[in-house]
Specification:
- The protein is an all-alpha fold.
- The chain has a domain of 83 residues.
- The protein has 19 helices and no strands.
- The termini are far apart.
Length: 401
Amino acid sequence: MAFLDELRARVEQTRGDDLAHATALVDLAEVEPLLGHRIAPVRAAIDAAAVVLDKVAAPELRARILLRLAQVKLVQVDFEGADQALNAVGEHVPEHTAMRFLTGVKACRVALRRGPEQRKLAGEMLLHSAAALPQFDADDVIWQRVASEVSLGIAEVALHEQTPDEAAFEPLRQLVDELGSDPAHVDTVFTAQQVLATFAISIGDGIRAVAAMRAVLKIAQGAGSPADEVEARLGLAGLLVTQTQGPAGHVSRDEAARHVQRARDTALEHELTELHHAALIAQAGVLADGGKTAGALDRMLQLARSAAADQDVPRYVAAVGMMAELYARSGDAISAFRTITESHRALSEATKSDATPLFRPHLAALRERIGSERLEQIAADISRANQLAAELEPKSGNDPS
């Protein structure tokens, strides 16, 4: 993005002037898009700024970089690290009202992720903060960030309610409208759209959920984050598949198929192994939804083979379970049973151990679907067929004729 290129150029231009260089690095760290998987560029700017800040007395710059570090830690789900960074802010700017306020609001967003009790307290603090905001300078950049954080926090708390209050998400929609095209607030809008998508899903509003996920995908692409792009495509595909009923259903299914294929290709290109596995599963789901069971089974077979090659037992068992489910959904209970039992035998032989506990849940799911009597009949029929095949096999290498 041109905006980031200009900031990076300023970082280079200010080398030799420690204060100007530190300012440029802090400015860059604050606006480098921080997404779920796009962390390294932000952390690099933070670390570079910290080195220069050790040479100059700039407490406000140090406080700003600590606030950004806290946000990085929050994305990494390192709540202790986030709290440590936030606690250090006050040491540098004890009299800076806006920055201390921002620190408190960020601390609430950390706390709400720690469990019901702390979420309740954080929610109350965020509501008090929202009520106090009008008395402060709305044109000040720090206070603008406070307002954004408060809106995000209130919405995040509301997501945990049994029936989320629609009003809790209206400020986020306004935030997206106001900041959606501002390159300095990319990660704020990214998070806001994710929250809006989650809320829309929770209330069954597929149209708004799809719109929000499209926005998430666009941001991930613009920020050049392949992993976030793959996740967004898979999420969007999952939403589109739920809209395949009715005369225009094939349009949503076709788009879903394109997204999962793009996700799979991108994951392969960038060697995102786990996301490639997720894309295979998603692709199988889309194919199965369209009645293409053979194609879906092929994707699961690929997953099982890669798991076997990697000696990844949990992934192998999961792939077998999904194959069995695909067979069962298509009405082929016999193939579902054989898939489970033959894979069980193969894994037991390969690991020289009893793999029964791993496959028991999948067999139980099949029993739940077709009934115990039908399952026992299939098992008996297959046992007799195997016995007959064994009896018909030549006892030696001679031609029995």
